[in-house]
Amino acid sequence: MAETTVSAAPHRTPAIAPRVKAAAVLFVLFALVPPVVTALGDPFLVLVATRILAYAIAALALDLILGYGAMVSFGHAAYLGFGTYAVAILSSYGVNDLFLQMLGAILVSAVFAFVTGAISLRTRGVYFIMITLAFGQMAFFFFISLSAYGGDDGYGLSNRSTIFGSDMLENDVTLFYVTLALLIALFALCHRIVSSRFGRVLTGIRENATRMEAIGYAPFRYQLTAFVISGCMTSVAGVLLANQAEFVSPAFMSWHRSGELIVMVVLGGIGTLTGAIGGAVAALLLEEFLGMVTDHWQLWFGLFLVLMVLFSPRGITGLVEQIGRRKR
Amino acid sequence: MSRLEMTHLDKSFGALKVTDDVSLTIEPGEIHAIIGPNGAGKTTLVAQLSGQLAPDSGRITLDGRDITRATMPERVHLGLARSFQITQVLPSFTVLENVALSVQAREGSSFRFFAPVAGETALNTAALKALAEAGLDERADLPASALSHGEHRRLELAMALATDPRTLLLDEPLAGVGGEDADAFITRLMGMKGRFTMLLIEHDMDAVFRLADRVSVLVYGRIIATGTPEEIRSDPQVRAAYLGEEEEAEA
Protein backbone atom coordinates (compact mmCIF):
# COMPACT_ATOMS: atom_id res chain seq x y z
CA MET A 1 0.00 0.00 0.00
CA ALA A 2 1.13 3.53 -0.73
CA GLU A 3 2.45 5.62 2.13
CA THR A 4 -0.27 7.84 3.44
CA THR A 5 0.32 11.53 3.03
CA VAL A 6 -2.42 12.69 5.39
CA SER A 7 -1.51 12.76 9.05
CA ALA A 8 -3.58 10.69 11.44
CA ALA A 9 -3.35 13.30 14.17
CA PRO A 10 -5.93 15.87 14.91
CA HIS A 11 -8.59 16.29 12.32
CA ARG A 12 -10.91 18.94 13.64
CA THR A 13 -14.16 20.27 12.32
CA PRO A 14 -13.18 23.85 11.52
CA ALA A 15 -16.69 25.26 12.00
CA ILE A 16 -16.67 24.67 15.76
CA ALA A 17 -13.93 27.01 16.96
CA PRO A 18 -15.51 30.31 15.78
CA ARG A 19 -18.79 29.30 17.37
CA VAL A 20 -17.10 28.73 20.72
CA LYS A 21 -15.55 32.18 20.36
CA ALA A 22 -18.97 33.65 19.63
CA ALA A 23 -20.36 31.95 22.73
CA ALA A 24 -17.49 33.36 24.81
CA VAL A 25 -18.34 36.86 23.57
CA LEU A 26 -21.98 36.30 24.55
CA PHE A 27 -20.95 35.15 28.03
CA VAL A 28 -18.79 38.25 28.56
CA LEU A 29 -21.69 40.46 27.46
CA PHE A 30 -24.01 38.64 29.86
CA ALA A 31 -21.55 39.15 32.71
CA LEU A 32 -21.72 42.91 32.08
CA VAL A 33 -25.51 43.05 32.39
CA PRO A 34 -25.86 43.53 36.19
CA PRO A 35 -23.39 46.45 36.53
CA VAL A 36 -24.76 48.14 33.41
CA VAL A 37 -28.45 47.92 34.31
CA THR A 38 -27.67 48.98 37.90
CA ALA A 39 -25.79 52.00 36.56
CA LEU A 40 -28.77 52.76 34.32
CA GLY A 41 -30.93 52.68 37.44
CA ASP A 42 -33.03 49.73 36.32
CA PRO A 43 -31.87 46.80 38.52
CA PHE A 44 -35.17 45.02 37.89
CA LEU A 45 -33.75 44.06 34.50
CA VAL A 46 -31.35 41.66 36.25
CA LEU A 47 -34.31 39.37 36.89
CA VAL A 48 -35.41 39.64 33.28
CA ALA A 49 -31.88 38.67 32.21
CA THR A 50 -31.84 35.73 34.63
CA ARG A 51 -35.01 34.41 33.02
CA ILE A 52 -33.39 34.70 29.60
CA LEU A 53 -30.30 32.77 30.74
CA ALA A 54 -32.44 30.01 32.26
CA TYR A 55 -34.30 29.61 28.96
CA ALA A 56 -30.97 29.63 27.16
CA ILE A 57 -30.03 26.53 29.21
CA ALA A 58 -33.28 24.83 28.15
CA ALA A 59 -32.77 25.77 24.49
CA LEU A 60 -29.20 24.48 24.65
CA ALA A 61 -30.45 21.17 26.05
CA LEU A 62 -33.11 20.89 23.34
CA ASP A 63 -30.55 21.67 20.61
CA LEU A 64 -28.52 18.67 21.75
CA ILE A 65 -31.28 16.30 20.61
CA LEU A 66 -33.04 18.46 18.02
CA GLY A 67 -29.94 19.74 16.28
CA TYR A 68 -27.53 16.85 16.74
CA GLY A 69 -29.97 13.95 16.95
CA ALA A 70 -32.83 15.16 14.71
CA MET A 71 -35.27 14.37 17.52
CA VAL A 72 -37.93 17.10 17.57
CA SER A 73 -39.26 16.86 21.11
CA PHE A 74 -42.49 18.81 21.50
CA GLY A 75 -42.75 17.96 25.18
CA HIS A 76 -39.61 19.49 26.62
CA ALA A 77 -41.54 21.93 28.82
CA ALA A 78 -42.33 18.93 31.02
CA TYR A 79 -38.72 18.97 32.20
CA LEU A 80 -38.91 22.69 32.99
CA GLY A 81 -41.91 21.70 35.11
CA PHE A 82 -40.03 18.92 36.90
CA GLY A 83 -37.32 21.45 37.76
CA THR A 84 -39.72 24.08 39.08
CA TYR A 85 -41.78 21.60 41.09
CA ALA A 86 -38.64 19.96 42.50
CA VAL A 87 -37.92 23.32 44.13
CA ALA A 88 -41.49 23.76 45.39
CA ILE A 89 -42.03 20.22 46.65
CA LEU A 90 -38.59 19.69 48.20
CA SER A 91 -38.58 23.09 49.93
CA SER A 92 -42.00 22.31 51.43
CA TYR A 93 -40.27 19.31 53.04
CA GLY A 94 -37.46 21.50 54.28
CA VAL A 95 -34.94 20.61 51.58
CA ASN A 96 -33.78 24.02 50.43
CA ASP A 97 -30.34 23.27 49.06
CA LEU A 98 -30.07 24.24 45.39
CA PHE A 99 -27.93 21.24 44.47
CA LEU A 100 -30.16 18.72 46.25
CA GLN A 101 -33.16 20.23 44.48
CA MET A 102 -31.33 19.94 41.17
CA LEU A 103 -30.47 16.34 41.97
CA GLY A 104 -34.15 15.62 42.63
CA ALA A 105 -35.19 17.34 39.39
CA ILE A 106 -32.55 15.43 37.44
CA LEU A 107 -33.55 12.05 38.89
CA VAL A 108 -37.24 12.52 38.10
CA SER A 109 -36.40 13.83 34.64
CA ALA A 110 -34.06 10.93 33.94
CA VAL A 111 -36.77 8.39 34.76
CA PHE A 112 -39.44 10.27 32.78
CA ALA A 113 -37.13 10.79 29.78
CA PHE A 114 -36.01 7.17 29.85
CA VAL A 115 -39.54 5.76 29.87
CA THR A 116 -41.18 8.23 27.47
CA GLY A 117 -38.09 8.34 25.23
CA ALA A 118 -37.98 4.56 24.95
CA ILE A 119 -41.58 4.59 23.74
CA SER A 120 -41.34 7.72 21.56
CA LEU A 121 -38.19 6.52 19.78
CA ARG A 122 -40.14 3.62 18.32
CA THR A 123 -41.72 6.23 16.04
CA ARG A 124 -40.31 8.65 13.48
CA GLY A 125 -40.95 12.12 12.15
CA VAL A 126 -44.31 13.69 12.88
CA TYR A 127 -45.32 10.73 15.06
CA PHE A 128 -42.33 11.34 17.31
CA ILE A 129 -43.37 14.99 17.62
CA MET A 130 -46.94 14.03 18.50
CA ILE A 131 -46.05 11.36 21.00
CA THR A 132 -43.59 13.59 22.88
CA LEU A 133 -46.32 16.25 22.92
CA ALA A 134 -48.74 13.72 24.40
CA PHE A 135 -46.33 12.76 27.17
CA GLY A 136 -45.67 16.44 27.87
CA GLN A 137 -49.40 17.05 28.21
CA MET A 138 -49.73 14.11 30.59
CA ALA A 139 -47.11 15.67 32.87
CA PHE A 140 -48.87 19.05 32.53
CA PHE A 141 -52.24 17.64 33.64
CA PHE A 142 -50.62 15.72 36.47
CA PHE A 143 -49.39 18.98 38.00
CA ILE A 144 -52.72 20.73 37.25
CA SER A 145 -54.41 18.14 39.45
CA LEU A 146 -51.76 18.40 42.17
CA SER A 147 -53.95 20.43 44.53
CA ALA A 148 -51.49 20.33 47.44
CA TYR A 149 -49.29 22.65 45.35
CA GLY A 150 -52.06 24.92 44.11
CA GLY A 151 -53.06 22.92 41.04
CA ASP A 152 -53.91 25.26 38.20
CA ASP A 153 -53.21 28.39 40.27
CA GLY A 154 -49.63 27.56 41.07
CA TYR A 155 -47.73 27.86 44.29
CA GLY A 156 -45.71 30.76 45.69
CA LEU A 157 -42.29 29.98 47.14
CA SER A 158 -41.57 31.41 50.59
CA ASN A 159 -37.86 31.59 49.90
CA ARG A 160 -35.31 30.90 47.21
CA SER A 161 -32.99 27.89 47.31
CA THR A 162 -29.94 27.96 49.54
CA ILE A 163 -26.35 27.08 48.65
CA PHE A 164 -24.63 25.14 51.47
CA GLY A 165 -27.00 26.73 53.97
CA SER A 166 -26.42 30.29 52.74
CA ASP A 167 -29.35 32.33 51.44
CA MET A 168 -27.14 34.22 48.99
CA LEU A 169 -29.58 33.57 46.12
CA GLU A 170 -32.04 36.00 47.71
CA ASN A 171 -29.81 38.60 46.09
CA ASP A 172 -30.94 38.94 42.44
CA VAL A 173 -27.43 39.66 41.19
CA THR A 174 -26.03 36.51 42.85
CA LEU A 175 -28.84 34.43 41.33
CA PHE A 176 -27.97 35.93 37.96
CA TYR A 177 -24.30 34.99 38.20
CA VAL A 178 -25.07 31.48 39.47
CA THR A 179 -27.39 31.03 36.48
CA LEU A 180 -24.71 32.36 34.14
CA ALA A 181 -22.10 30.02 35.65
CA LEU A 182 -24.41 27.04 35.11
CA LEU A 183 -25.12 28.14 31.52
CA ILE A 184 -21.38 28.31 30.80
CA ALA A 185 -20.74 24.94 32.46
CA LEU A 186 -23.56 23.25 30.54
CA PHE A 187 -22.47 24.85 27.27
CA ALA A 188 -18.98 23.44 27.84
CA LEU A 189 -20.49 20.04 28.66
CA CYS A 190 -22.64 20.03 25.50
CA HIS A 191 -19.65 21.11 23.44
CA ARG A 192 -17.61 18.21 24.83
CA ILE A 193 -20.46 15.78 24.18
CA VAL A 194 -20.97 16.74 20.54
CA SER A 195 -17.22 16.51 19.86
CA SER A 196 -16.87 13.13 21.58
CA ARG A 197 -17.22 9.57 20.31
CA PHE A 198 -20.82 9.61 21.49
CA GLY A 199 -21.53 12.90 19.74
CA ARG A 200 -20.10 11.64 16.47
CA VAL A 201 -22.34 8.57 16.60
CA LEU A 202 -25.38 10.72 17.44
CA THR A 203 -24.69 13.07 14.53
CA GLY A 204 -24.04 10.11 12.24
CA ILE A 205 -27.48 8.69 13.08
CA ARG A 206 -28.99 12.08 12.25
CA GLU A 207 -27.27 12.05 8.85
CA ASN A 208 -28.02 8.45 7.83
CA ALA A 209 -29.36 5.89 10.30
CA THR A 210 -29.23 3.00 7.80
CA ARG A 211 -25.56 3.60 7.17
CA MET A 212 -24.87 3.65 10.90
CA GLU A 213 -26.63 0.30 11.37
CA ALA A 214 -24.63 -1.13 8.49
CA ILE A 215 -21.36 -0.32 10.26
CA GLY A 216 -22.52 -1.78 13.56
CA TYR A 217 -24.45 0.83 15.56
CA ALA A 218 -27.91 0.26 17.02
CA PRO A 219 -29.30 3.86 16.85
CA PHE A 220 -31.89 3.43 19.63
CA ARG A 221 -29.51 3.32 22.59
CA TYR A 222 -27.57 6.40 21.50
CA GLN A 223 -30.70 8.39 20.77
CA LEU A 224 -32.27 7.41 24.08
CA THR A 225 -29.12 8.37 26.01
CA ALA A 226 -29.08 11.79 24.35
CA PHE A 227 -32.79 12.20 25.07
CA VAL A 228 -32.23 11.50 28.77
CA ILE A 229 -29.23 13.87 29.00
CA SER A 230 -31.27 16.60 27.32
CA GLY A 231 -34.25 16.12 29.65
CA CYS A 232 -32.03 16.27 32.73
CA MET A 233 -30.33 19.46 31.55
CA THR A 234 -33.67 21.09 30.84
CA SER A 235 -34.81 20.40 34.40
CA VAL A 236 -31.82 22.41 35.69
CA ALA A 237 -33.28 25.38 33.80
CA GLY A 238 -36.57 24.71 35.60
CA VAL A 239 -34.91 24.85 39.02
CA LEU A 240 -33.43 28.25 38.12
CA LEU A 241 -36.74 29.55 36.73
CA ALA A 242 -38.54 28.68 39.97
CA ASN A 243 -35.95 30.70 41.87
CA GLN A 244 -36.20 33.58 39.43
CA ALA A 245 -40.00 33.77 39.62
CA GLU A 246 -40.31 32.59 43.25
CA PHE A 247 -43.43 30.94 41.99
CA VAL A 248 -44.22 27.64 40.28
CA SER A 249 -47.24 26.70 38.19
CA PRO A 250 -48.19 24.24 35.46
CA ALA A 251 -47.90 27.17 33.01
CA PHE A 252 -44.16 26.41 32.88
CA MET A 253 -44.98 23.07 31.27
CA SER A 254 -47.74 23.92 28.81
CA TRP A 255 -47.21 22.87 25.22
CA HIS A 256 -46.83 26.53 24.20
CA ARG A 257 -43.67 26.54 26.25
CA SER A 258 -42.37 23.45 24.41
CA GLY A 259 -43.11 25.25 21.15
CA GLU A 260 -41.25 28.36 22.30
CA LEU A 261 -38.19 26.26 23.08
CA ILE A 262 -38.27 24.86 19.52
CA VAL A 263 -38.65 28.41 18.17
CA MET A 264 -35.56 29.52 20.15
CA VAL A 265 -33.47 26.71 18.71
CA VAL A 266 -34.67 27.27 15.14
CA LEU A 267 -34.27 31.04 15.43
CA GLY A 268 -30.72 30.67 16.69
CA GLY A 269 -29.67 28.01 14.20
CA ILE A 270 -30.25 24.29 14.62
CA GLY A 271 -27.32 22.15 15.69
CA THR A 272 -24.91 24.91 16.67
CA LEU A 273 -25.25 25.14 20.51
CA THR A 274 -24.15 28.80 20.45
CA GLY A 275 -27.17 29.49 18.27
CA ALA A 276 -29.54 28.03 20.85
CA ILE A 277 -28.26 30.57 23.40
CA GLY A 278 -28.51 33.41 20.89
CA GLY A 279 -31.97 32.23 19.88
CA ALA A 280 -33.23 32.25 23.46
CA VAL A 281 -31.87 35.77 23.98
CA ALA A 282 -33.34 37.04 20.69
CA ALA A 283 -36.75 35.43 21.19
CA LEU A 284 -37.20 36.65 24.76
CA LEU A 285 -35.85 40.15 24.10
CA LEU A 286 -38.17 40.50 21.11
CA GLU A 287 -41.04 39.33 23.30
CA GLU A 288 -40.15 41.99 25.89
CA PHE A 289 -39.66 44.87 23.45
CA LEU A 290 -42.52 44.08 21.09
CA GLY A 291 -44.71 43.59 24.15
CA MET A 292 -43.88 47.14 25.26
CA VAL A 293 -44.69 48.61 21.86
CA THR A 294 -47.86 46.75 20.97
CA ASP A 295 -50.41 44.34 22.40
CA HIS A 296 -50.27 42.37 19.18
CA TRP A 297 -46.59 41.55 19.58
CA GLN A 298 -47.10 37.90 18.65
CA LEU A 299 -48.18 38.94 15.17
CA TRP A 300 -44.92 40.84 14.61
CA PHE A 301 -42.90 38.10 16.21
CA GLY A 302 -44.51 35.60 13.85
CA LEU A 303 -43.67 37.79 10.87
CA PHE A 304 -40.06 38.07 12.03
CA LEU A 305 -39.86 34.28 12.41
CA VAL A 306 -41.24 33.69 8.91
CA LEU A 307 -38.70 36.10 7.38
CA MET A 308 -35.90 34.49 9.35
CA VAL A 309 -36.77 30.95 8.28
CA LEU A 310 -37.20 32.06 4.66
CA PHE A 311 -34.03 34.11 4.33
CA SER A 312 -31.71 32.44 6.82
CA PRO A 313 -32.73 28.81 7.34
CA ARG A 314 -29.70 28.40 9.58
CA GLY A 315 -31.00 31.09 11.88
CA ILE A 316 -29.00 33.83 13.54
CA THR A 317 -25.88 31.65 13.41
CA GLY A 318 -26.19 31.39 9.63
CA LEU A 319 -26.69 35.14 9.37
CA VAL A 320 -23.67 35.96 11.54
CA GLU A 321 -21.47 33.49 9.68
CA GLN A 322 -22.53 34.98 6.34
CA ILE A 323 -21.64 38.48 7.50
CA GLY A 324 -18.33 37.17 8.85
CA ARG A 325 -17.47 35.66 5.47
CA ARG A 326 -18.33 38.84 3.58
CA LYS A 327 -16.07 40.94 5.77
CA ARG A 328 -13.10 38.72 5.02
CA MET B 1 -17.67 -25.18 8.07
CA SER B 2 -19.18 -22.99 5.40
CA ARG B 3 -18.90 -19.24 5.84
CA LEU B 4 -22.38 -18.12 4.87
CA GLU B 5 -25.30 -20.43 4.27
CA MET B 6 -28.84 -19.72 3.11
CA THR B 7 -31.42 -22.48 3.50
CA HIS B 8 -34.82 -22.28 1.79
CA LEU B 9 -35.11 -18.51 2.03
CA ASP B 10 -38.47 -17.07 1.02
CA LYS B 11 -39.58 -13.45 0.86
CA SER B 12 -42.70 -11.97 -0.69
CA PHE B 13 -43.94 -8.43 -1.08
CA GLY B 14 -47.69 -8.97 -1.32
CA ALA B 15 -48.28 -11.40 -4.17
CA LEU B 16 -44.79 -10.86 -5.56
CA LYS B 17 -42.24 -13.52 -4.64
CA VAL B 18 -38.89 -11.75 -4.58
CA THR B 19 -36.93 -14.55 -2.96
CA ASP B 20 -38.14 -18.00 -3.91
CA ASP B 21 -36.66 -20.96 -2.06
CA VAL B 22 -33.05 -19.75 -2.20
CA SER B 23 -30.47 -22.17 -0.80
CA LEU B 24 -26.81 -21.32 -1.27
CA THR B 25 -23.57 -22.08 0.51
CA ILE B 26 -20.60 -19.71 0.39
CA GLU B 27 -17.25 -21.23 1.34
CA PRO B 28 -14.55 -19.38 3.31
CA GLY B 29 -12.31 -17.28 1.09
CA GLU B 30 -14.58 -17.66 -1.91
CA ILE B 31 -15.73 -14.83 -4.15
CA HIS B 32 -19.24 -15.76 -5.08
CA ALA B 33 -21.04 -13.59 -7.60
CA ILE B 34 -24.79 -13.34 -7.98
CA ILE B 35 -25.96 -12.14 -11.36
CA GLY B 36 -29.41 -11.73 -12.77
CA PRO B 37 -31.61 -9.32 -14.71
CA ASN B 38 -33.02 -6.17 -13.12
CA GLY B 39 -35.77 -6.98 -10.67
CA ALA B 40 -34.48 -10.50 -10.06
CA GLY B 41 -34.35 -9.84 -6.32
CA LYS B 42 -30.58 -9.44 -5.86
CA THR B 43 -30.72 -6.42 -3.57
CA THR B 44 -33.60 -7.95 -1.59
CA LEU B 45 -31.42 -10.99 -1.02
CA VAL B 46 -28.55 -8.82 0.24
CA ALA B 47 -30.99 -6.99 2.49
CA GLN B 48 -31.98 -10.29 4.11
CA LEU B 49 -28.38 -11.40 4.49
CA SER B 50 -27.36 -8.09 6.06
CA GLY B 51 -30.38 -7.97 8.39
CA GLN B 52 -32.14 -5.00 6.84
CA LEU B 53 -35.11 -7.21 5.91
CA ALA B 54 -36.36 -10.38 7.62
CA PRO B 55 -37.07 -13.38 5.38
CA ASP B 56 -40.60 -14.82 5.56
CA SER B 57 -39.12 -18.25 6.12
CA GLY B 58 -35.83 -20.08 5.87
CA ARG B 59 -32.54 -19.86 7.70
CA ILE B 60 -29.28 -17.92 7.40
CA THR B 61 -26.12 -19.05 9.17
CA LEU B 62 -22.79 -17.27 9.44
CA ASP B 63 -19.86 -19.47 10.46
CA GLY B 64 -22.35 -22.08 11.63
CA ARG B 65 -24.26 -19.63 13.78
CA ASP B 66 -27.94 -18.93 13.10
CA ILE B 67 -28.26 -15.20 12.34
CA THR B 68 -31.72 -15.27 10.75
CA ARG B 69 -33.15 -13.02 13.48
CA ALA B 70 -29.99 -11.02 14.26
CA THR B 71 -30.14 -7.25 13.67
CA MET B 72 -27.92 -5.45 11.21
CA PRO B 73 -25.49 -4.11 13.87
CA GLU B 74 -25.28 -7.55 15.50
CA ARG B 75 -24.28 -9.11 12.19
CA VAL B 76 -21.61 -6.46 11.68
CA HIS B 77 -20.10 -7.40 15.04
CA LEU B 78 -20.09 -11.04 13.90
CA GLY B 79 -17.92 -10.05 10.94
CA LEU B 80 -20.47 -9.48 8.18
CA ALA B 81 -20.25 -6.11 6.44
CA ARG B 82 -22.07 -4.76 3.43
CA SER B 83 -21.81 -1.98 0.90
CA PHE B 84 -24.85 -0.38 -0.69
CA GLN B 85 -25.88 -0.25 -4.32
CA ILE B 86 -27.10 3.31 -3.76
CA THR B 87 -24.33 5.18 -1.95
CA GLN B 88 -25.03 5.61 1.76
CA VAL B 89 -22.50 7.89 3.39
CA LEU B 90 -22.63 10.72 5.92
CA PRO B 91 -22.47 13.73 3.59
CA SER B 92 -21.45 16.43 6.08
CA PHE B 93 -18.71 14.30 7.67
CA THR B 94 -15.25 14.23 6.15
CA VAL B 95 -14.17 11.10 4.30
CA LEU B 96 -11.88 10.23 7.21
CA GLU B 97 -14.66 10.77 9.78
CA ASN B 98 -16.96 8.47 7.82
CA VAL B 99 -14.44 5.66 7.98
CA ALA B 100 -13.30 6.44 11.55
CA LEU B 101 -16.91 5.81 12.63
CA SER B 102 -16.66 2.31 11.17
CA VAL B 103 -13.47 1.72 13.16
CA GLN B 104 -15.04 3.17 16.32
CA ALA B 105 -17.93 0.70 16.08
CA ARG B 106 -15.52 -2.16 16.78
CA GLU B 107 -12.81 -0.42 18.85
CA GLY B 108 -13.98 0.25 22.38
CA SER B 109 -17.16 1.85 23.64
CA SER B 110 -19.00 4.65 21.90
CA PHE B 111 -20.42 5.76 25.25
CA ARG B 112 -17.53 8.16 25.79
CA PHE B 113 -18.80 11.66 26.28
CA PHE B 114 -15.84 13.90 27.04
CA ALA B 115 -12.65 13.20 25.09
CA PRO B 116 -12.65 14.81 21.63
CA VAL B 117 -12.90 11.99 19.09
CA ALA B 118 -11.07 13.97 16.39
CA GLY B 119 -7.87 13.61 18.41
CA GLU B 120 -7.99 9.82 18.63
CA THR B 121 -4.96 8.88 16.60
CA ALA B 122 -5.65 5.13 16.72
CA LEU B 123 -9.07 5.58 15.08
CA ASN B 124 -7.68 7.89 12.41
CA THR B 125 -4.75 5.59 11.65
CA ALA B 126 -6.97 2.56 11.17
CA ALA B 127 -9.37 4.64 9.07
CA LEU B 128 -6.54 5.87 6.84
CA LYS B 129 -5.41 2.29 6.33
CA ALA B 130 -8.87 1.28 5.11
CA LEU B 131 -8.99 4.38 2.92
CA ALA B 132 -5.63 3.51 1.41
CA GLU B 133 -6.88 0.01 0.61
CA ALA B 134 -9.87 1.52 -1.18
CA GLY B 135 -7.62 4.03 -2.97
CA LEU B 136 -9.12 7.07 -1.33
CA ASP B 137 -6.57 8.16 1.29
CA GLU B 138 -5.68 11.35 -0.57
CA ARG B 139 -9.24 12.59 -0.21
CA ALA B 140 -9.38 11.97 3.56
CA ASP B 141 -9.97 15.57 4.63
CA LEU B 142 -12.68 16.41 2.11
CA PRO B 143 -16.33 16.38 3.13
CA ALA B 144 -17.96 13.21 1.77
CA SER B 145 -20.42 15.36 -0.17
CA ALA B 146 -17.53 16.71 -2.29
CA LEU B 147 -16.56 13.32 -3.72
CA SER B 148 -17.28 12.16 -7.26
CA HIS B 149 -19.54 9.18 -7.87
CA GLY B 150 -16.61 6.83 -8.38
CA GLU B 151 -15.02 8.05 -5.15
CA HIS B 152 -18.30 7.51 -3.30
CA ARG B 153 -18.18 3.87 -4.42
CA ARG B 154 -14.69 3.57 -2.98
CA LEU B 155 -15.81 5.21 0.27
CA GLU B 156 -18.58 2.59 0.50
CA LEU B 157 -15.90 -0.09 0.24
CA ALA B 158 -13.61 1.62 2.77
CA MET B 159 -16.42 1.91 5.32
CA ALA B 160 -17.17 -1.80 4.97
CA LEU B 161 -13.46 -2.76 5.19
CA ALA B 162 -12.97 -0.64 8.33
CA THR B 163 -15.48 -2.72 10.27
CA ASP B 164 -12.86 -5.52 10.07
CA PRO B 165 -15.18 -8.06 8.43
CA ARG B 166 -14.56 -11.66 7.47
CA THR B 167 -17.43 -11.65 5.02
CA LEU B 168 -18.26 -8.82 2.63
CA LEU B 169 -21.59 -8.34 0.91
CA LEU B 170 -20.92 -6.05 -2.03
CA ASP B 171 -24.09 -4.80 -3.68
CA GLU B 172 -23.07 -3.61 -7.14
CA PRO B 173 -19.87 -1.89 -6.04
CA LEU B 174 -19.27 -0.90 -9.66
CA ALA B 175 -22.70 0.62 -10.27
CA GLY B 176 -22.17 3.64 -12.48
CA VAL B 177 -18.38 3.28 -12.49
CA GLY B 178 -16.74 2.89 -15.88
CA GLY B 179 -13.45 2.58 -17.71
CA GLU B 180 -10.20 2.90 -15.79
CA ASP B 181 -12.00 3.47 -12.52
CA ALA B 182 -13.78 0.14 -12.86
CA ASP B 183 -10.52 -1.60 -13.82
CA ALA B 184 -8.74 -0.21 -10.78
CA PHE B 185 -11.65 -1.23 -8.56
CA ILE B 186 -11.61 -4.80 -9.88
CA THR B 187 -7.84 -4.99 -9.36
CA ARG B 188 -8.32 -3.80 -5.78
CA LEU B 189 -10.91 -6.50 -5.10
CA MET B 190 -8.62 -9.10 -6.72
CA GLY B 191 -5.92 -8.08 -4.25
CA MET B 192 -8.27 -8.81 -1.36
CA LYS B 193 -9.10 -12.29 -2.62
CA GLY B 194 -8.58 -14.86 0.11
CA ARG B 195 -8.58 -12.28 2.90
CA PHE B 196 -12.33 -11.92 2.83
CA THR B 197 -15.17 -14.08 1.74
CA MET B 198 -17.15 -12.01 -0.72
CA LEU B 199 -20.67 -12.19 -1.99
CA LEU B 200 -20.70 -9.93 -5.00
CA ILE B 201 -23.80 -8.66 -6.71
CA GLU B 202 -22.72 -7.20 -10.02
CA HIS B 203 -24.01 -6.27 -13.46
CA ASP B 204 -20.57 -5.81 -14.97
CA MET B 205 -19.96 -9.22 -16.56
CA ASP B 206 -16.30 -8.46 -17.11
CA ALA B 207 -15.89 -7.93 -13.36
CA VAL B 208 -17.89 -11.04 -12.51
CA PHE B 209 -15.94 -13.36 -14.77
CA ARG B 210 -12.58 -11.94 -13.67
CA LEU B 211 -13.28 -12.05 -9.95
CA ALA B 212 -15.68 -14.83 -9.13
CA ASP B 213 -14.78 -18.37 -8.11
CA ARG B 214 -18.39 -19.35 -8.51
CA VAL B 215 -21.42 -17.62 -9.99
CA SER B 216 -25.11 -18.04 -9.19
CA VAL B 217 -27.83 -16.81 -11.50
CA LEU B 218 -30.94 -15.34 -9.93
CA VAL B 219 -34.09 -14.99 -12.04
CA TYR B 220 -37.46 -14.00 -10.57
CA GLY B 221 -36.17 -14.69 -7.08
CA ARG B 222 -34.97 -18.20 -7.92
CA ILE B 223 -31.45 -19.49 -8.35
CA ILE B 224 -31.52 -21.23 -11.72
CA ALA B 225 -27.85 -22.20 -11.85
CA THR B 226 -24.67 -22.18 -9.77
CA GLY B 227 -21.23 -23.01 -11.10
CA THR B 228 -17.81 -21.79 -12.13
CA PRO B 229 -17.77 -18.81 -14.50
CA GLU B 230 -17.02 -21.22 -17.37
CA GLU B 231 -19.97 -23.45 -16.55
CA ILE B 232 -22.29 -20.46 -16.23
CA ARG B 233 -21.12 -18.97 -19.51
CA SER B 234 -21.96 -22.17 -21.37
CA ASP B 235 -25.18 -23.06 -19.54
CA PRO B 236 -27.97 -22.94 -22.15
CA GLN B 237 -30.64 -22.13 -19.57
CA VAL B 238 -28.62 -19.17 -18.30
CA ARG B 239 -27.96 -17.93 -21.81
CA ALA B 240 -31.66 -18.04 -22.55
CA ALA B 241 -32.70 -16.38 -19.34
CA TYR B 242 -30.04 -13.77 -18.96
CA LEU B 243 -26.78 -13.68 -20.82
CA GLY B 244 -28.47 -13.85 -24.21
CA GLU B 245 -30.46 -10.75 -23.47
CA GLU B 246 -27.34 -8.87 -22.49
CA GLU B 247 -25.47 -9.88 -25.61
CA GLU B 248 -28.38 -8.96 -27.81
CA ALA B 249 -28.68 -5.63 -26.07
CA GLU B 250 -24.99 -4.98 -26.56
CA ALA B 251 -25.10 -5.96 -30.24
What does the model show?
- The complex is a heterodimer of chains A (328) and B (251).
- Chain A has helices at residues 16-39, 45-69, 77-92, 98-120, 125-144, 172-195, 197-207, 209-214, 219-245, 255-268, 274-293, 297-311, 315-327; strands at residues 155-156, 247-248.
- Chain A has 328 residues and is an all-alpha fold.
- In chain A, strands 1-2 form a two-stranded antiparallel ribbon.
- The termini of chain A are far apart.
- With 251 residues, chain B is an alpha/beta fold.
- Chain B is 37% helix and 24% strand.
- Chain B has helices spanning 42-50, 72-77, 95-106, 121-133, 149-161, 179-191, 205-211, 229-234, 236-250, and strands spanning 4-13, 16-26, 31-35, 57-62, 65-66, 80-83, 167-171, 197-201, 214-219, 222-227.
- In chain B, strand 4 and strand 5 (65-66) form a beta hairpin.
- The termini of chain B are far apart.
- The mean pLDDT of chain B is 92.
- The CATH class of the largest domain in chain B is identified as Alpha Beta
Distance between the termini of chain A: 41 Å
Total beta strands of chain A: 2
Counted by DSSP, the helix tally of chain A is: 13
CATH architecture of the largest domain in chain B: 3-Layer(aba) Sandwich
Mean pLDDT across every amino acid position of chain B: 92
What percent strand of chain B? 15-25%
Give helix and strand order of chain B, one letter per element, not per position: EEEHEEHEHHHEHEHEEHH
Class from secondary-structure proportions of chain A? mainly alpha
Whole-number total of structural domains of chain B: 2
Characterize the overall form of chain B: globular
Q: Helix/strand/pairing class of chain B, anyone?
A: alpha/beta
Helix content of chain B: 25-40%
Quaternary form: heterodimer
Helix fraction of chain A, binned, reads over 70%
Largest interface: A-B, 35 and 53 residues
Radius of gyration over C-alpha positions of chain B, nearest whole angstrom: 18 Å
Give the strand order, joined by hyphens, for the main sheet of chain A: 1-2
